[in-house]
Structures are given as C-alpha cells and as structure tokens.
Amino acid sequence: MAMKPPIVLASQSPRRAALLQMIGLPFAALPSEVSETLDPAESAEANAVRLARAKGDKIRALRPEALVLAFDTIVECEGRLFGKPENDEAAVEMLRMLSGTTHRVVSGLYAAYGTRTETAYEVTRVTFDPLSDDLIRAYVRTGEPLDKSGAYAVQGRAALFASRLEGDYYNVVGLPLYALCRLLLRLDIDLWSYIAPQSAKA
User: Fold this and answer.
1) Would you call 188 a catalytic residue per the annotation?
2) pLDDT grade for 202, boundaries at 50, 70 and 90
3) Which residue of 74, 95, 123, 185 has the lowest C-beta tally within 10 Å?
C-alpha cells in the first residue's frame, strides 16, 4: 500500500497552492520565511535546489511526521540570475533585460519524508517579444510582477508577450507538477494514492 503521510507545502505562494489544488492534492501550507538570496557564483540550478532545500528543511524540523514539499524558482538570462524584484524599478530593469530574449526558468524541488530527502530541478525556456519601455512600465503598474521571479507571470498578463515556451508550462508558474510526481516516486510515494484513492479498486 502506498504511504499517505500528511502533506505540508513550505510556501505561501498562492500560485503553488492553486496548482496543488488543481490536481486535487490535500495539503496544508506553512511558509518557511527563508531568505531567498541568490549566489551569483552558483548556477541557477544549484541556487534553486539550495533554496528549496533550505525552505523544506526548516518546515521539516517543525513537522517531522509530514511529507514536506518545497520549491524555488529562478530566472536565468545570459548568465544573470533573477529572483523576485524588490520594487517597481527593479521589476522594470528585469523586464528590460528579458525583453527580446530566450531565457531559462529553473525550479528547484525538494521533498522529505521521515529520514529521507530528495531534490531535483526543472528547466523551461521562455521567449519574450521585444518590449517597449511604455509596455514594460504599463505592465509593472498592474502590480503583477512584484512577487514573481523574473518580474512576470506567464499565467497572467505576461502571456501577451511570452511568444514561445519550451518545456513544462507549470514550471514557469512555479511548480512543475510532472517533475514533482517523479520526485515523490523516489520516496516511494504515489500522488495518485491521494488524488484518485478509488483507482486501485477493480
């Protein structure tokens, strides 16, 4: 029988919560309050996994009986790493640098249950149209970019200028669902046991 410990999402992100709700996964959200400082000496992948692990380890200490899930998403463009903008002007500068580029969205994944932990990362390539300063500032005035890595939400208004996406769309939103499913199998946990409990009955 598949293990079914309670699930704790180490995040206050409404987008990650919405994606787990979308697949019918029962969970509790418990923000980890970890500083998301990026290390420019590390790759985007290493930063994302390190930060996801830091978030998850903090909640794991509080809820040792639970299956703890944690994530971190970083945008990388021409060797530069972008987390969440601190203010409107920082968002404007990020979007200027992403304008007309194909950049990478990298999410680190962390899962822990009992004494075991697993990590992984997922990468998606996103191409932006060239963006005028007027368009960038109009977008920033909507307030949408301020709590988003790379200062945009592809599931929101940024869909109007994200012309191409190569890879997992949900990764760009902040939680790569397929990669999560595969990661949990390494912990001997099957998500289908939570979201389709009758499927095993013939």
Assistant:
1) no
2) very low
3) 185
Q: How far apart are CA 186 and CA 92, in angstroms?
A: 40
The crossing angle, in degrees rounded to 10, of helices 133-141 and 88-98 is: 140
CA 134, 163, 20, 85 torsion-angle sign: negative
CATH code reported for the domain at 7-195:
3.90.950.10
63: exposed, middle or buried (C-beta count within 10 Å: 0-12, 13-18, 19+)? middle
Angle at 52 between CA 51 and CA 58, to 5 degrees: 90
Q: How many helices (H) and strands (E) does the chain have?
A: 7, 7
In the block, residue with structure tokens 């290493």: 46
Looking at residue 199, what is its pLDDT? 47
Which tens digits make up the pLDDT trace of 24-45?
Answer: 999 999 998 888 889 999 999 9
Of all residues in the chain, the percent with pLDDT exceeding 70 is 96
The C-alpha atoms of residue 106 and residue 125 are separated, in whole angstroms, by: 9
**List 72, 88, 147, 168, catalytic entry:** 72
Helices marked H in the chain: 14-22, 44-62, 88-98, 133-141, 169-173, 177-185, 192-195
d(CA 80, CA 76): 5
